[in-house]
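Supplementary Methods, section 5.1.

A reviewer requested that the exact input to the structure prediction be made available. We therefore reproduce it here, unchanged from the version used in the analyses.
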Amino acid sequence: MREDVSKVIKDLLMRENVRESIKLLHSSDLRIVIVTTGAGAGLTQQLLSVPGASNTLIESCVPYSTEAMISYLGSKPNKFVSVDTALRMASVAGDKGVSFEPNHKDISGLAITGTITTNRPKKGKNHAVIVLDNKKENIVHVNTIEFTQTPEGYGVLGRKGEEALINLVGLNMLLLAAGLEQIPLPDEDYQLTYTKIDHSEKVTGLIFTDGKMIEDYTNFNWKDYILFPGSFNPLHEGHKQIAEKISALTGKSIVYAINIDHPTKGRIHKDDLNKRKTQFEWHDILLITGELSLFIDKARNLPGSSFIIGVDTLRAIIGPCQYDCTIEELFKQFDDLGTHFYVPDRQHTAGVDKAEHFIEETEVLRKFKHLFTPVEFSNPISSTEIRGKQYESKKE
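The structure derived from this sequence is encoded token-by-token as follows.
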């Protein structure tokens, strides 16, 4: 491997202009949360080595194990080193920063995930993904680095060189977010690809089967429709069968609903959102919202609305509290708003999770039993399983 190139990068990181750039960063208004899977963890140490880091860094986290990553993201990613996973990591990091400091306007989440040179050759490529989610501008910056490898499968830059370059690219993304000059990079033995994702464009609205969209969906007559919220990644036959059954039961049309910001899964980025939208075009009504991540948000902003909600989602609502009130107070608010829930059973490999039984057995739900209509349903299809099969087929 090219230890001389690795030394060039390491020397670059030690130069005084790098420290000066970090000093300027610490003097800016930018506040950040950093999350890495190991590669790139040295960036935090660099920031801490220059006085004033407390002005910049809110939190740094390294969810290194599989279990830690699942806990951080709220679900298991299909691949741990991918643009999709890094986007989710950065979104969660940025959201954590906003929750820690809700009155600070300039907050970003920085995520780094990568697989780099080890003491044994690799069959796959050495690469890293670095994502900065700028919550102030609603813009996401994505850098992917692919490192040159020897015929034997080792990185030309060596592990320390690859790590140093990842740290430097991450630092440059922070400087970019702060409006500061970036540090010139060496130009050998790696390929850097940059993408900018702009979420500031208006993408929310109620889209009808003829393609027409209305942006002011809060004044829509929601009493004549039933909302079916979900990620729909992908939309499958189970979803369609539930919608058809409840539409036949109530005589009302179903409106599928996707919220761009999920309370545990993070933000759906524009390209992904467009793919999900195409599943509904010309045959289903679709509502896309931006700030109605919780059911109580939807109920407050969409007067007279009723929802289809799986029994597993109902379990999550009464689980660890995401609200500023008790669960009983939450359902009292739903009751006052006239909200109603249609709750289909959920079939698992171990059997059927019956909505009726769950409501009867749960004290707070039993108290508000009139808010729920259990719906018998048996279809074992799940979006998670479909995505897993799609991922396995791509590997083959």
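The mean pLDDT is 86. These observations are discussed further in the main text.
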